[in-house]
Amino acid sequence: MANTMQHQHIKWFGLIRILGLLMILGYHFFKVGYPGGFIGVDLFFVFSGFLITSLMIDEFSSTQRFDLIAFLRRRFYRIVPAVIMMILIVVPFTLLVSPDLITGLGKQIAAALGFVTNWYEIATGGSYANNFIPHLFVHTWFLGVEMQFYLFWGVLVWGISRLLKNPEVPMRERRVRFRGILFTLALLFTAASLYLMWQQSQGLKDFTPVYFSSLTHAFPLFAGALLATVTGVAVVPM
Predict the structure, then answer these.
(1) 95 belongs to a structural domain
(2) How confident is the model over 28-33, as a mean pLDDT?
(3) Can you say whether the dihedral through the CA atoms of 18, 24, 28, 30 is positive or negative?
(4) One biological-process term from Gene Ontology (predicted)?
(5) Cα–Cα distance between 28 and 37 in angstroms, integer?
(6) Which of 228, 153, 141, 233 is nearest to 193 (CA)?
(7) Of 48, 113, 152, 157, which one has the greatest count of Cβ atoms within 10 A?
(8) Does residue 79 lie in a domain region?
(9) How far does CA 142 lie from the centroid of its chain?
(10) How many CB atoms are closer than 10 A to CB 78?
(11) Residue 171, CB-side half-sphere exposure with 13 Å CA sphere
């Protein structure tokens, strides 16, 4: 039964990921007829925040602790090898096809590997609305937002788990407190990020800075985290 449940969850989340990808591709290739496709990125963010926070809650409920190093190690091995492989494939191909695109290549690679492409694009004036941005790894901006969320949220959750490490308090009560604190923080961060996006969008013609910024675009990640604290999950895809 457990295996059946797990396969059902994986299929369901897989369909959501495919839907998000199709929305993003539709936006970039059919922008005039499909202007709202960029919401697919937010869909990815919501489910990422949901899954990560679900795993955190499950780990604390089972072990009464949260292993930050193990958490970051899993994220590293899940994401970094794929990014390195992408760079190793894209750079030689670009040198053969269009050498003009190698301007500032070292900085682009450093930003991609450091998961700060979103801030690099803001600093260099990149535009998300432009289909032909001369930066090779501009689309790793979302990985920057995601990895920065993992680091911030991971450290915060680790600190909370340490504060609740009191053997005198019943295990069930610690679980309730842990979930309640995460709920409160996720709600506050969602509201704060949404407010910042609204405030900083006033009067803008190019919304790239607020779209790329981790501060203004963190709300779907924290909304997913908020959902995880409310619903909980018995089985999630690893």
Answers:
(1) yes
(2) 45
(3) positive
(4) lipopolysaccharide biosynthetic process
(5) 8
(6) 153
(7) 157
(8) yes
(9) 7
(10) 10
(11) 6
Rg of the chain over all Cα atoms, to the nearest angstrom: 19
Does some domain include residue 105? Answer: yes
Contacts of 118 (CB under 8 A, 6+ apart): 141, 142, 144, 145, 212, 213, 214, 217
Inside any domain, residue 186: yes
- pTM above 0.85? no
Domain count, the chain: 1
Distance (Å, whole) CA 57 – CA 96: 48
Locus of tokens 């995601």: 146
pLDDT 10s digits, 172-182: 899 999 999 99
Domain that holds residue 47: 42-231
Q: Which tops the pLDDT comparison, 38 or 111? A: 111
- Measured between alpha carbons, how far is 131 from 175 in angstroms, rounded to an integer? 47
220 burial level (CB within 10 Å; 0-12, 13-18, 19+) = buried
Name the residue type at position 34: Y
- List CB contacts of 116: < 8 A, sequence separation 6 or more: 144, 148
